[in-house]
Amino acid sequence: PSSLTSLELDLRRNRITAVGFADLMHSLPSRLTSLVLDLNWNLGLVWTLDVAQELRGLPPSLITLHLNLPSRRNETTDDVVHEITRALPASLTSLQLDLQGSSITDDCLAEFGHALPQGLVSLKLGCSAISDAVCGRFARGMPRGLAKLHIDRDANEVSDGISQVGMEALREGVPHGCQVAVLAHHWYGPG
Length: 191
Fold this sequence. Notes:
- The chain is an alpha/beta fold.
- 28% of the residues lie in helices and 21% in strands.
- The relative contact order is 0.12.
């Protein structure tokens, strides 16, 4: 229905195709303010640049987005992440983006921070690895009103995680008063 303002779709075990994903994006209600879209372990969808471009169908009224992408190793590239960022509505205040299993580079992560909607208040980012070298550049690009930054890192990728130097760079780079949390967890395949 067009009056729907909140939607949660769990498509983890469904075989949605690129065409099905495009249809879904184009059929979202225009008044939608909250969307949870879980595509993790979806075996039918290959996350390509074309599929990422379909996110341009996100309603401009959206203020909360939780996007859990397919987690097949080395599938999500820098170009795909750039396209996802371009598709984020300016109205967004809360973003949870899970890029676990992606092959994005430090440069892409730094650019991601600079490309986020300026009204963003809360960011939870799941990523395979984040190096000390990129922490400061990534954090300095955050929107000035960001109040919470939560990074959920895959402990299988980096044995030691972010060092004290990296954590200091994150804390110094984010807007004043922003809460920073970095957690590491072990990533296990579908079970």
